[in-house]
Structure formats: C-alpha cells, structure tokens
Amino acid sequence: MTQYSVYAIGAALVDTEIQVNDSDLSAMSVEKGVMTLVDQARQTELIDHLKGHLVGANHASGGSAGNSMIATALFGAPTFMSCKVANDEDGDIYLADLEASGVDHSLHNKRGSGTTGKCLVLITPDAERSMNTYLGVSETLSLAEVDDQAIAASSWVYLEGYLVTSPTGHEAALHTRKVAEANNVKTAISFSDPGMVMYFRDNMTQLVGDGVDLVFCNEVEALEWGGTDNLDKAMEAIKQVAKSFVVTLGAKGAIAFDGNTTYQIAAHTVDALNTNGAGDMFAGAFLYALSRGEGFERAGEFAVRAAGEVVKYFGPRLQAEGYPALRREFFGD
After folding, report:
1. Confidence at 108, pLDDT banded by 50, 70, 90
2. 180 neighbors 29 (Cβ within 8 angstroms)
3. In terms of Cα–Cα distance, which of 84, 162, 69 is closest to 117?
4. Angle, vertex CA 321, rays to CA 75 and CA 20, nearest 5
5. Which residues contact 31 (CB under 8 A, 6 or more apart)?
6. pTM, two decimal places
C-alpha cells in the first residue's frame, strides 16, 4: 500500500507577483511569457525599477512542482515534496505553506545558510506572466534532499523540468527517476518552459531517459521538443519517449493521450487575470484525478476546470477552501 499519491522534486521559490505593462517589460529588457534565470543583482535591479509605480504586489510560495503538490494535496491526495530552502524568512514562508497544505517533506533540521529562491512574476494586462528567477539555495538542490523511502512509498514521481538547469539538481532528478523505476513507481515529467527544452536539450533528454509514463507540456514546449511547427508531428515525437502525455493549449483546452486514445479536452472559458501557476495547477489536478482512478479524459476535464479557476485570481493557487469546493462540484464528493 502506498503512502503518497505523488512524490515531487523541484525548486522551492517564493513568488512576488507584480502587475506591469508591456512598456515596463521593454524598459527592463524582460522577455515576455517565459522563465529567465537571473542572479540576485539583476532581480534587485528589476525590483528597484518597479518600486515607484507598483500597481499591486502579492507574495506566495511558488516553484512549479511545489505548486502542483500543494494542489494535489488540497484536492485530497497525499503528496511529498523534496526541495531546498534556507534558514531565512522566505524559507519560513515556503515551509509554512507546504505544511498548511498537508504536503509532507524532509526538510526538518536540514535548512542551512544562504538565500531561499525567489521568483519575480511580472503580470501584464493580457494575463501573461513573465518570470525572472533567482534560484538561491535551490541551485544546489542535490542528492542530499532526495528521500528514497518516500519515493518507494509513492504511486507517482513528478519531475520538474526546471531541474535541468542545475548540475546537482539534474543529478538528483535522475536519481529520483531511477529509484522510482526500481520500485515500480510511475514517472511523470513536466517540460516546464520552452527554454528548458531549447537550451538544455541534452539534460532534458537524459531526464526522460529510456522513457517515462507521462509527460506534461504546453503547445510551445511540445513543438520545441519535436523540432517542428506541426503539433501532430510534435505529439508523435513525444510518444517516442512517453507512454502517455498531456499538451495544454491555453484558451483552447488540452489534448490528452492515455497510451491508446487521444482526447480533445474543451477549454473552460473564463476572464483570465493572471496565468501564473495555471500549468502547475493543471498538473496537480490531473495527478489528483488519476489518484482517484479517473481516466485521462475525465482527469483532463478536471485539470482544465481547475486551471481555468486559478487564472481568475492573482497568486499561483486558490484559497484553501476552493479546492474541496471544486472537487465536490466536479466529482460530487
């Protein structure tokens, strides 16, 4: 009997969301719609540039895999998160969010010196998010943070694609996948960002290895993986490395392939305010639905519904009561 529905490994970040205009992005030379790794000086420079005309700023624990595990846990399935935070105020915030959400972790008495990672999330009026990430101690996430016992006690392992940027994080992710495979734990990977596929292709290929059970990606990431501008060809390329996959299409919904059948998942139409966390919510909700025994079509419909809900608000997640409410509305329990 498994203890966790999902075990994940990824960067622990504290998000600062700031509403800006496209002209602000241009003035700061920020590339729109993607995640850019920056050093602490560059992140401070960006914040200083915005200090005089902030429309609104919101702070919350973030990081792709962490957001997904919080979602899965709050919907009702137990999860475990391997990550690294420093012994600082942001580290306190991150751990408090994990624990309040019921996500187990192995960070007890393991926090050291340094700075907890931070992500500056710039939200434009079209709801697009542009992320500038200073990894802090997450850059040194390593084998020391991996919990082999928790992996073996899980139904799924979820690997955050952002780990391909860090030599020690990449090694930790590779080890996590191998332990999962050795214990017959299913493996899922998120491509995370087009830049991860484009600029770290070799590391991403190693992370996929001989093949994983499930790939999560968006349309741009899928096309980048396939080296094509044709989505059908891109999905055929993903089939070479994954038994199943989901491609999110934003306002067009999603496509889910369960290994036999391809499902077109209709969008849940909303007035989007902020797309930060939408893909993370999708993955977390999808994995929760699978943990209930739902098929890919039903899981995709629930994940689209959940992602459509989170983009209506600032912050990468819903209020805590929003998760059971959405579960009851969709599944009736």
Report:
1. confident
2. no
3. 84
4. 95
5. 25, 130
6. 0.93
Q: CA angle, 192 as apex, 82 and 221 as ends, to 5°? A: 155
Question: How much is the pLDDT for 180?
Answer: 98
Q: Which CATH architecture has domain 4-10+64-113+140-331?
A: 3-Layer(aba) Sandwich (3.40)
The token pair that represents 60 in the structure block: 């919350």
Q: What angle do CA 36, 64, 165 make, to 5 degrees?
A: 45
Average pLDDT of 270-293? 88
Model confidence band, residue 15 (pLDDT cutoffs 50, 70, 90): confident
CA atoms of 330 and 328, how far apart (whole Å): 5
Listed in sequence order, the residues at least 6 apart from 210 whose beta carbon sits closer than 8 Å to its beta carbon are none
Residues 6+ apart with CB under 8 A from 106: 80, 82, 145, 147, 150
In this prediction, residue 273 carries a pLDDT of 63
In 3D, which of 112, 172, 171 has the Cα closest to residue 148? Answer: 172
What is the model's pLDDT at position 62?
A: 84
Beta strands at 129-134 and 254-257: parallel, antiparallel or unpaired: unpaired
> With contact defined as beta carbons under 8 Å apart, do 177 and 157 qualify?
yes
Strands 254-257 vs 262-265: parallel, antiparallel or unpaired = antiparallel
* Cα(293)–Cα(275) distance, integer angstroms: 28
- 193, 119 contact by CB (below 8 A): no
Max CA separation in the chain (angstroms) = 55
**pLDDT at residue 16 tops 70:** yes
In which region does residue 276 sit, left (phi positive, over 0), alpha (psi from -120 to 50) or beta (all else)? beta
Consecutive H or E run containing 175: helix 167-182
Going from N- to C-terminal start, the domains of the chain cover 4-10+64-113+140-331
